[in-house]
Inverse folding.
């Protein structure tokens, strides 16, 4: 009985703080089980998050992905590349409570596209947190052994400060 009570308390704590749990992991959360995925989407929606879904059962190429991103995120026509997506994400306005970008069956895309997509979004999850906004990325895959081989959203910790960015300013 005590064990069940603790499980129920933990579940309530997890459910109440699902957004913070995702933020603590960098803003991106990976799912295999669709029912857990759908449950978490519902939790975030109930908290008032704006949910924007991308379904990779119909999006199977990088071009289709960029066209869907352009349409659903309200971007003007852009060069259909990840550098352009990164540029437009700088101007993307996250709603007051927060936005959740949901990618179903993302592993239907090629590994290179998945890596670049998640890398761009990891940067913008972090950037938005720094200005008090919440951008969360939920990714569901069909392969339980799915992994991204390279680090996403990694930082180079030797980046120079703004005043000394140019080598000439460090002399």
């Amino acid at each position: 009985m005590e064990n069940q009570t603790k499980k129920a308390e933990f579940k309530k704590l997890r459910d109440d703080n699902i957004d913070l749990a995702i933020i603590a992991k960098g803003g991106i959360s990976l799912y295999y089980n669709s029912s857990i995925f759908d449950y978490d989407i519902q939790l975030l929606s109930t908290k008032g998050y704006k949910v924007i879904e991308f379904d990779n059962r119909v999006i199977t190429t990088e071009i289709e992905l960029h066209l869907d991103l352009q349409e659903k995120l309200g971007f003007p026509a852009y060069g259909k590349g990840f550098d352009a997506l990164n540029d437009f994400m700088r101007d993307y306005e996250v709603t007051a409570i927060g936005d959740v970008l949901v990618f179903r069956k993302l592993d239907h895309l090629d590994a290179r596209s998945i890596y670049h997509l998640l890398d761009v979004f990891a940067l913008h999850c972090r950037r938005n947190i720094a200005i008090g906004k919440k951008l969360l990325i939920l990714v569901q895959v069909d392969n339980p052994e799915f992994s991204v081989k390279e680090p996403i959203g990694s930082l180079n910790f030797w980046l120079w400060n703004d005043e000394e960015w140019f080598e000439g300013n460090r002399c």
Notes: The longest strand covers residues 50-55. The radius of gyration is 18 Å.
